[in-house]
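Render this sequence as a predicted structure.
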Amino acid sequence: MSEHVTWAHRLTRAGRRLARYSAAAGLSFGLTLGLTYVLVQQAGLRPPPAYAITLLTVFTVNFLIMRYWVYRDVTDKSRITRQLTLCAIVSFTSRLLEWCLFTGLVEGLAVPYLVAVVIVQVTLFAVKFGVYDRWVFGKRAGTPDS
């Protein structure tokens, strides 16, 4: 392929990353439910500490999956500390934003809570994909896109 990467080629690669991101989100959801259940029902933990352990585990698994699978074609492998820090900031910030949006929809606009969950999750899914793609796992500015 020539040195110049076409817009269509970049769009196709982004589409593949989006498909991998979607699969990772599904895995994350399943792991969150499953691990919480196992820690409560099988290990006998109370739900709050079980969920805390689950969230830490899922964050770690998500980071590794995103770095080495979802964004494998754009990530700079030498920047793990920066990526981990940014990923934690994005994760925390997005959770806070999700809660604020959810609360605003339900309490302020009287949107049914399950509808609000769907609106918030779908909206933030797209935003988080873009943030991870551009600022967390993307190559440094000025680095040629291969």
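Summary. The first helix runs from residue 7 to 42. Confidence is low (pLDDT under 50) at residues 141-146.
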